[in-house]
Amino acid sequence: MREVPFALLDEQSKKEIRRAILKGVAIPGYQVPFASREMPIGRGWGTGGLQVTLALIGKEDTLKVIDQGADDSVNAINIKKLVQKTTGVETTSRTQDASIVQSRHRIPEVPLTKEQILVLQVPEPEPLRAIERSEYKTKRYHAEKEYSGAYLMLFEQIMRYNQTSQGADYPVLVNGRYVMNPSPIPRFDNPKIDSNEALILFGAGREKKIYAVPPYTNVQSLAFEDYPFVVEQFEGKICRETGLSNVFLDELTDEKTGETYYLCNDTSYMKEVLARKVAVK
Amino acid sequence: MAYVAVRGGAEAIEASLEHLQYERVKEGAYVAVETLQATMRGFLDQVMSESSLYSEQLAGLAMKQSEGNVEEAIFLLRAHRSTLPRLYYSTTTDARNMFVLRRISASFKDIPGGQILGASHDYLHRLLNFDLLQETAADVVAQKAEFEAIEVPDESELPLENLPKVMDYLRQEGLIREFPENDAEPSDITKESMAFPTNRSQRLQTLTRGQTGTVTSLGYAGLRGYGASHPTVGEVRVGWQSIHVAMDDEDDPYYIGAIKLTEVESFIPVNVDSEDKQVLEFDIGYGACFGQNETKAIAMSIVDHALETGGDTPIHDEEFVLLHVDTIESTGFISHLKMPHYVTFQSKLEQMRTIKKEGKSL
Amino acid sequence: METVHYTQRAFRTLLNCFARPGTAGKLENNYTVNGLYAETATICMSLLDGEVSFQTANKHREINQSVHAITGCQIKSLEQADFIIIPHGTEQQQLLKAIELAKVGDLIDPQKSATIIIELDEIAPTITAQLTGPGIKTVEHIELAVGKELLALRTSKNKEFPLGIDCIFIERSGRVIALPRTTSMSEVTN
Q1: How many Å lie between the alpha carbon of B189 and the closest alpha carbon of chain A?
Q2: CATH number listed for the domain at residues A11-221
Q3: A26, B7, C85, C172: which one has the fewest Cβ atoms less than 10 Å from its Cβ?
Q4: Is the same domain home to B298 and B183?
Q5: Are residues B192 and B54 in the same domain?
Q6: Which of C:156-175 have CB within 8 Å of A?
C-alpha cells in the first residue's frame, strides 16, 4: 500500500529539481531557487545534495558518497544507505568507479572525468550572507553584479591579519559573472572547480537553492593583485601512511605518544595509494 | 582524538539504530496507533499542523514510531509528504461554513449565534488528576456511557453551521478597513520557493506550518512591545471544515472530507486617513491552522498583521520571521552542528597558526 | 513505474547536452503526440508539469491539447510560456516571431526565461557552426539545419547575459543538441 517511489521523490518533485538543474547549468554560478522537499534525513545534513542526487540517479548509476573526505563517516553512510534502499544502485568508495559523487566539504583528490557528476552539499549558498543578512538585498547585489562587499570583506581581513582569514567557503567568480560560494570545501579544493572535466552541481536544501558549474568553466577565487589567493599550506607535513604531501591532510594525535601526525584526508585515495605501494613491493 | 572517533563507520551506525529500536520496546509495553489516535488529540493536532499533512492515522503512527518526540514526528510526516504526488488543489473553503465545535469572541459579550465554549482547557484547573494513574479500560468505557446518557436539552439545538462571523457585524458598520478584493491564485511555498518581498499567501502558509512554540513566542513579542499591534480577539472558531476538489471548471466540486480547523480573526485598531480627517478603523490579523491549536492561531494573527504593516522590530521583518519559524529547518540546521566539521576546522586552524606566526604586529 | 526510468534517462541525456553544448544526445521514443517528433514528447514528459507553462510557436490547438493531456502543463501565451515548442514544419515567420516573444527573465530572476524546443526538418540547409563558452573545452563544431535569421535572433536574445533563452534542437533523425544561453555560436564559412 505504501510503496516508496524509485529514488524516493515523486515524479513532480523530480521534474521541478531537474528544471532547476538545467537552469543552473545554463546560468553558471547563479543560485536557482527551488521548492526544496523535506527529506528523511536532517535538513542541514545534506538534503540539498541528496535531492539533486535523487533527481539525477538511474538504475545504471554507481554512487559514491563522502563526508569530510571519508566514505565511511556516519553521514556519508547514512546518505548512501538511503539512496541505495530507494534505488538499488551500486555504491562504491573508489572515485574512478562512480558516475555520481555526492560530497560534503571536499572534492576528491583523484581528478574527475567527463563521465562523472559531482554533487556538493551546501549549508549556506549565499557568498554575500556574511556581509548582508537580507536575502532581498543579496539577490539584488547579484543582479547588479555588485560585489564590492565581497572584496571588502577579504580586504578587511588583509588589513587586520596581513592575509585573508577566510578558511573554507572561500568565494569564487564563475564565468566572469557570478560570485559563488563553492560550499565549505577547503581553499585547497577551490582550484579544482576551475575548468573541471566533470559537471559540478550544488544543492542547498534548507536555503532552497541549486546552482551549477558546467565542465570547462572559468572559476577564479577572489583575490587581489598584491594579495593572491593561497590554499592551506601543509609545509613540511606529509601523510604518515602514504608519504604524500600534495593532498589535503587531517591532523591527528597519536594517543600513545601524544605526537601530532598527519593523514591524507581523502580516505579512499589513501587506501588506493597504499594498495599500489603494497603491489609494487 | 575525538575527530577520528566520529568516523564510526557502518557498524557503529547499525548498533546505534538497534539501540534506538530497543529503547522503544525495552519496557515490554505496547500502545496501538488507534489508541494514540483516540487519546492524544492535542499532540496529533500540533504535529499535523506543523507537518502540513492532515492525517490522524499517520500522525499517530509518527508519534508511536518517534516515541512521542514532537520534532521527530513532524520530521517523519514531512519526509513522507515529499513522496506523495500532488494530484489536486482544493477549491476555496470558507470558514463561514464551518461545522462549529467551539467559537468564542473576546470583543463582545454576546455575539450573534452565541458564545460556544465547546471542549477547552481554558477553564480547567491545572491540577494533576491522580485518579488517572489507576484508570482502567473499563473505567473509560463506563465514563463514556455516563456522558452519552446525558440528555441534551432542547434549547441547545443551535445552528452550528453557517454561524455568522463577528467580523461581518463590524464590517456592516463600516468599522473594518476595506481593501480591494484580491482573488489572485495563492502561492504554494512547497511548490515554489519564496522570493522576497513575499505575498500574503506565502506568509500565511509559512506561519500556519510554523513551529508552534516559535510562532507563539513571536506573537508574544509583538504583543509585549516588539510590535505595533495590540489586538482584541474578534473570534476564535474551531470546527470541521469541508474540503472539496474540482476536476475541471465546469463540474460541481467533489467533497473529499472534513478537517478540523482553528481560525482566528483579531481586531487591531489603526489610523486611517478619511476625507481630510483621521479616523480609527480595525484591521484584521488572520490566523488559521490544522487541528485545535488556538494559541498558535492567535499568535499567528498577531504576526500576520505585524508583517502586513511596517515597523522596525524583528517581528515586522519578513525574512527574520519567515526564514526561522519552520520546525524542520531550525531543528535540522541546529542539529547539523553535531556532524563532523574537521575539514573546515583544519582549514581555519592552519590559517590561525599562519596569522599567529606571520600576522601584522600592532 | 517504467516512466520513472524513462524520464530519468531523458533528463540525463538533456543534462549532458546542456552541460556540454554541441554534444549530440539520443532520446527514447515512448509517447506520440500527433504533429511532434517522439523525442519532443519525451522532453515534455521529463520536464513539463502543472507547475509550469508552454505554448507552441503556431499556437497549434491539437498539439497544445495533447501536450496538456500527457503532462498537465498549463497553456499560456508565447510571452509568458516557460517552454516554447516549435513543431517541425512551422513557418519561418511564426518560428522567428515565437522566439522574438520568448521571455528572457530579468536580472533578479534570470531563470524566469523560456526554454525553446525546436524541431528541425531538412528544409533549411545545414550550416557548420563554431561553439564556445562554458561546457566547451576550446571550441566545438556542429552541423545544424538552421537558418541564419534564427542564429542571429538567438544571439540577440542572449546578448545581455544572464538574460536569455536556452534552446534544444531536435532533428528528424532523433539527434538532440542543446545550446544554453552561454554558448556563443557563429557560422563557419569555408
Answers
A1: 7
A2: 3.40.50.11310
A3: C172
A4: yes
A5: no
A6: 161-162, 164, 166
Q: Evaluate whether the domain defined by C2-181 bears CATH number 3.40.50.11310.
A: yes
Asked whether residue B134 falls in the same domain as residue B12, the answer is no
What is the pTM (predicted TM-score) of this model? Answer: 0.90
Q: How far apart are CA C160 and CA C155, in angstroms?
A: 10
Q: Per DSSP, what are the bridge partners of residue A91? A: A63
Which residue in the set A18, A178, A214 is minimally distant from C19, CB to CB? A214
CA–chain centroid gap for A181, Å, is 10
Inter-residue long-range contacts of B271-275, CB under 8 Å, 24+ positions, other chains counted: B272/B177
Are A252 and B4 inside 8 Å of each other by CB?
yes
Q: Which of A36, A106, A255 sits opposite B193 (nearest CB)?
A: A36
Q: Are residues B71 and B189 in the same domain?
A: no
- Nearest CA to A94 out of A270, A231, A223, A249 is that of A270
Q: Which pLDDT tens digit goes with each residue over C99-134?
A: 999 999 999 999 999 999 999 987 778 889 999 999
**Residue A220 CA: distances (Å) to CA of A116, A175, A186, B92, B109:** 22, 8, 14, 51, 69
List all residues of chain B from 44 to 103 with a beta carbon under 8 Å from chain A. Answer: 75, 78-79, 81-86
Determine which of A38, A122, A234 to mutate to test the interface with B (most B C-beta atoms within 10 Å). Answer: A38
DSSP B248: S
Cell of B340: 563532523
Question: Does residue B88 form part of some domain?
Answer: no
Range of the domain at B39: 2-81
Query: Domain limits of chain C?
Result: 2-181
Cα distance between residue A20 and residue A51, in whole Å: 11
- For chain A, the residues whose C-beta falls within 8 A of a C-beta of chain C are 5-7, 11-12, 14-16, 18-23, 25-28, 30, 32-33, 55-59, 114, 139-140, 143-144, 175, 177-178, 195, 199, 212-218
Instruction: Give the cell for residue A199.
Output: 559537471
8-state DSSP, C21: T
Q: Is the pLDDT of residue C92 over 50?
A: yes
Total domains in the fold of chain B: 2
Question: Which residues in chain B land under pLDDT 70?
Answer: 1-9, 154-158, 229, 249, 359-362
Ramachandran category for residue C173: left, alpha or beta (phi over 0 → left; psi -120 to 50 → alpha) = alpha
Residues B193 and B160 in one domain: yes
Within an 8 Å CB–CB cutoff, is residue C2 touching chain B? no
Strand segments (E) across chain B: 99-104, 232-245, 254-274, 277-290
Q: Name the one residue in this structure whose C-alpha cell is 537558418.
A: C147
Instruction: Tell whether B293 and B165 lie within a shared domain.
Output: yes
Q: Are residues B48 and B17 in the same domain?
A: yes
pLDDT of residue B1: 32
DSSP state, A41? S
Cα distances from A117 to residues A111, A174, A272, in angstroms, run: 12, 18, 21
Shared domain for B118 and B74, answered yes or no, is no
Percentages helix, strand, coil for chain C, rounded to the nearest 5?
30, 25, 45
* Contact residues, chain C, for B192 at CB < 8 Å: 51
* Candidate from A39, A78, A206 with C-beta closest to B79: A39
In chain A, what residues touch B354 (CB-CB under 8 Å)? 163, 233
Is B278 near chain A, with CB under 8 Å?
no
For residue C160 the three cell numbers come to 545581455
Which tens digits make up the pLDDT trace of B215-246? 999 999 999 888 876 789 999 999 999 999 98
